[in-house]
Amino acid sequence: MDQWFNIKFEDRETQALLLKNEVEIPSGEVTFSRLLAWIESKGIRHGIRNEVLSLVAETLDSFAFPAEIAKGKQPRDGEPAKLIPSFSNEKKLDTNENAKLDFKRLFTIPTAEFGEILARKQNATEGIAGISVFGKVLPAKKGKDLLVKNGENTVYNDSEQCVYASASGEVTFQNNRVNIYPVYRVDGDVSLKTGHIDFVGNVHISGDVPSGFKISAKGDVRVEGVVEAADITTDGNVVIGGGVLGQGKGTVRCGGDFTSLYISQGNVYARGNIMVAQTILHSHCEAESNVTCTSGKGNISGGTCIAGNGISANDIGNDTNSKTLLYIKTNDRMEKEIIQHEQKILELQKNLEKLNHLKIVLIQKNTDQQTINRIVNTISQSNHEIVELQKEIEKCKNSSQSSIQIKGTLHPNVEICIGKYKRKIQSPFSAAKVFIEEKEIVVHTL
Fold it and tell me: What residues does the Flagellar Assembly Protein A N-terminal region domain cover (predicted)?
């Protein structure tokens, strides 16, 4: 069998693929029993797919190799700890493209009173171990814990794992803390009467923000109307009940998530997610996490969308084939992380050589045992750190690839970049997923 077949292992040895060599196989030499015995002789014990082996033996001449002959199970790491809001008075209205939309009431404002429970900590979960085709257990990592910190006007009770309000005001949720900020309210449009707004807290505008105005805040910025070619900068989230009509000039920058009904010729930068209900049209959008446009019409057309993790939309591009650029940076970040981890390992290994040499010299000089023990402990800690860094490198290499999801149509003249790889879409695809496979951008129809 060795001269006729090879076995390729993938996904941390949880998948075994049978490859056929370019050698003629005499008739009748490959049977199910002989094939099974040969596979077991290679140490494969778990998840053998007998039905595939039978099919290979019966249709050897016409079978399309490679064949998945054994399937294990990838480990699933535990979910990280997180803060779960204990209330929700933020309600989305119907964003169906055929429904009548009230631009100025797309969102309500989350508020809290003194002493109210704002959030509860949900502990990290244990992972689920996997198993290779060799029967080897693949351990899973427990989810990462979350160190909850006291925010502005909030207190975290560790024994109850609850966040309490120490003042009344508007609530802003972040990754590891909850803040309650005072509110600067503008009833109506921003105008010459209000001027530019610079406030250490939340800003709530019930009307529009016309071109030329600037808003700067520490908390969340909420605009019930439309934002034109204005500049908004905040450490928190931005919620725009109407949409953005940037005219190619206005800029929105936020330290959290950005949410809006639509973006037209706008420039939006978010350290979290960019979530748009209807359309992103001829705009420049950058999110460190995800860009999502799947509610209602859910169309991204023209301009540039850049994401750290993934992009999803109902339709990308349009019938007139407007040039649209999508770029995902995740692979670049992973490569940088791997390089950083490898450099740290080299530094630790060099330091270990010095420590081991020092330990030998101290022992030869009959140095007191306490000093030697300190050196031994440092060596042990360094070795442990190297092992952990190696695990992180492996995790980066085996992490799931970022992707672009299209529920409807991916139109031609859409240029896709994932890391250093690039592909221009030449023909339409329906219900597709775009990702990296063997150093090439592929489009897989769902």
Answer: 25-176
* Cα–Cα distance for residue pair 420/430, rounded to 1 Å: 25
Q: Is the pTM of this model over 0.85?
A: no
d(CA 98, CA 297): 9
User: Alpha-carbon distance 373 to 132, whole Å?
Assistant: 40
Q: How far apart are CA 446 and CA 436, in angstroms?
A: 16
For β-strands 162-165 and 154-157, DSSP reports them as antiparallel
pLDDT of residue 388: 85
| Per-domain residue ranges of the chain | 5-71, 82-96+107-180, 183-273, 298-446
Residue 20 CB: number of other CB atoms within 10 A?
Answer: 17
Burial class (CB in 10 A: 0-12, 13-18, 19+), 373: exposed
Residue 403, pLDDT > 50, answer: yes
Query: Which pLDDT does position 400 carry in this prediction?
Result: 47
Considering only CA atoms, which of 152, 147, 148 is closest in space to residue 165?
152
Close Cβ partners of 366 (under 8 Å, ≥ 6 residues apart): none
Cβ contacts of 429 within 8 Å, gap of 6 or more: 406, 409, 410, 443, 445
pLDDT over 60 (residue 90): no
Q: What is the mean pLDDT of the chain?
A: 87
The band of 445, judged by pLDDT with boundaries at 50, 70 and 90, is confident
Cα separation, 110 vs 92, whole angstroms: 12
Beta strand pairing status for 197-199 and 214-217? Answer: parallel
DSSP type of residue 400: P
pLDDT higher than threshold 90 for residue 133: yes
Name the 3-class secondary structure at 172.
Answer: strand
Out of 52-66, 220-234, 360-374, the most confident range is 220-234
